[in-house]
Amino acid sequence: MCFGLLGPNGAGKTTTLRLCLGLTNPDAGEITMLGFKVPGEAREARRRVGVVSQVDNLDPDFTVRENLLVYGRYFGLRPRELAARIPDLLEFAGLTAREQSRIQTLSGGMKRRLTLARALVNDPQLIFLDEPSTGLDPQARHLIWDRLRKLTSDGRTILLTTHFMDEAERLCHRVAIIDHGRKIAEGAPRDLIAQHIEPQVVEVFGDGAQAWAEKVGRSASERCETTGETVFCYTHDADAIVHQLEREPGLRYLHRPASLEDVFLKLTGREIRD
Amino acid sequence: MMTHDFSAPRVSWRFMHVWQRNRLVWRKLAIPSMLGNLADPMLYMLGLGYGLGAMLPEVGGMSYVAFLAAGTVCSSTMMSASFESMYSSFSRMHVQRTWDAIMNAPVTLEDVVLGEAMWAASKAFLSGAAVLLVAAALGLIASPLGLLVLPLVFLTGLAFAGLGLVMTSLSPSYDFFMYYFTLAVTPMMLASGVFYPVEQLPGWLQVAAEALPLTHAVALARPLMNGAVPEAAALHVLVLVAYAAVSLYAALVLTRARLLT
Questions:
Q1: Is B29 within 8 Å of chain A by CB?
Q2: For residues A262, A267, A273 and B3, what is the CA-based torsion angle, rounded to 10 degrees?
Q3: Hey, what CATH class is A198-257 in?
Q4: Using CA atoms, how far apart are residues A214 and A181, in angstroms rounded to an integer?
């Protein structure tokens, strides 16, 4: 199972993870992780959890192999156990050939894969991933996604934070959208889309888009929103709009099915968060 | 808002993993690191000890170089512990985020702070012990009592590691540590009886020097290296233990406020 925690910057995603790990004390309420009360039994709980944090915190003083070895020791794993586990972890990360490389020589994607492998060193039941694909190129992102799918099919639970909705839609069985520290929606991505938004979207771009929205868009769609120069028309049947737009040579448009991003923007608003 | 968590430390033996991590890094650079740590104090000890010592009849009942050797053991211990617990610990805590990664494992901040302090004390121990070894080779150690300087060096290292970690917990950048060196370490070097007896200082400064940890370390090391049992040894040890305990607890409370909110 992969659970996604979605929210704009500052919504409380990372704070939620830190609370679960017992790294931040709650102001109120109780937290249980894998049956352990946190922060009281956080140490015990963290033995069964792997964490990939948002900022790179691989150990720059060590090689790839040493990073896994030293990190395994923090879990109290013996050298022999670790020596047996490390080849599998290196293979999972696709870094077998780079075993002796220093961290500084790795690409961003390799570092992220190594961080993921490091989070698996204790064979965790639950894995926390805080924005795992931020800053990666598409190739590296797809490789990470592939590895994450492999982990869920192995029966591990993943808790993922992201603000890439396509990532959440691809990976997560369930997602929760949070804002200002509160959950505002939860469900399977497909259900949330069906529940909160019209199934089809037409995005219209160009100088005349605003005028077109007033003239045609608003009446032809169920809901019509404008951000800057772009008009978003949400509807159950886009045929008429698309047909009409084909006769507007000054406008460019994109007709697509509604996505989780549309739900997200509807629920959290379009204004910039800093 | 910054709130402080004063609860008792929850330490475990896992602090040793933090210590081990630092040792593994050190092992890669052990020789240059040891040379850098040793060359400076050794040059001062030998240069001043023999150069200046040639002009002095006796200081504190012994040759000046023997007098200075005891001071140098303690001051190089202090320097080594301070550098490690400030510049190096700060790199690991703030720049490399190594502490954050460690705390995602079942290792607590208490373990990390203790591991860092024990590591800084261990490095300081090596520095102090190396100076002691050179002093022994030069025939500057009068009796096997000098061996008791070894545990003293570790304790002194721990006290300065604690103080260094307090500075680290408050530091916004590397530059901040210059204040500590200029305002605390250098005056302490001059007021604690490293280069000349504390009794040479004006009365008020002698009283102030009594509050400094380095004074108590020197007051123990010098007689031990000279073959005598130190006066008021228990008091000196107690002051060093108190410095170590209070500074480590303070460092923990301050790093909790910095990292665990």
A1: no
A2: -140
A3: alpha beta
A4: 36
Q: Which of A87, A104, A105 is nearest to A96 (CA)?
A: A87
Neighbour order of strands in the sheet with A174-179: A49-52, A126-130, A157-162, A2-6, A174-179, A182-187
Largest Cα span, chain B = 61
Domain ranges of chain A: 2-193, 198-257
- Name the closest residue on chain B to residue A40, using Cα atoms: B10
Specify the pTM.
0.92
Q: Specify the CATH class of A2-193 in words.
A: alpha beta
pLDDT at B30 over 90: no
Residues B132-155 have a mean pLDDT of: 95
Secondary structure of residue A128 in the 3-state scheme: strand
Q: Is B182 exposed, middle or buried (0-12, 13-18, 19+ CB in 10 A)?
A: exposed
**What's phi and psi for A250, nearest 5 deg?**
-80, -10
Cα–Cα–Cα angle for A192, A196, A202, nearest 5°?
105
pLDDT tens, residue order, chain A (274 aa): 999 999 988 888 999 999 999 999 888 999 999 999 998 999 999 999 999 998 889 999 999 999 999 999 999 999 999 999 999 999 999 999 999 999 999 999 999 999 999 999 999 999 999 998 888 889 889 999 999 999 999 999 999 998 889 999 999 999 999 998 899 999 999 999 999 999 999 999 988 888 888 888 888 889 998 888 899 999 999 888 898 888 888 889 999 999 999 999 999 988 877 6
Amino acid residing at A191:
D
Taking a C-beta distance cutoff of 8 angstroms, is the pair B241, B249 a contact?
no
Please give the C-alpha separations between residue A74 and each of B14, B91, B102, in angstroms, as whole numbers. 7, 19, 7
Inter-chain touch B21–A59, beta carbons under 8 Å? yes
Please tell me if residue B14 touches chain A, with a CB cutoff of 8 Å.
yes
ipTM given for this complex: 0.89
How many Cβ atoms are within 10 Å of A191's Cβ, its own excluded? 13
Domain boundaries, chain B: 19-259
**Chain A contact set for B100 (CB, 8 A):** 53, 55, 57
Burial of A48 (0-12, 13-18, 19+ CB in 10 A): middle
**Cross-chain Cβ contact A74/B107 below 8 Å:** yes
